[in-house]
Fold this sequence. Notes:
By secondary structure, the protein is mainly alpha-helical. Helices cover 62% and strands 8% of the residues. It has four helices and two strands; from the N terminus they run αβαβαα.
Amino acid sequence: MERALAWLGGALHLGLVVMLRGQAVVYVPPAWVTPLGWLLALPGAPAGSVSAVWWIAICRSVVRRLLAPLQAPVTQLGTSNPLGAMLAM
């Protein structure tokens, strides 16, 4: 079940990247991202914007970092499967 959810999440992420690869999510002032502004616009968003690809990657990274402390106490219960430990409670 856990592997299926992970596969589904990966497929959803890939689908969003393919569908929105040229869309701009937010436009930022050039002074905020002067040296790397072109990189944030890849692959195909207008210059001076953050593309959907980068927006999704940044959001996934932030969510993963926010959820990491919540998973730590569960793994200390002696199980290597945090989801199984939460369901067993």
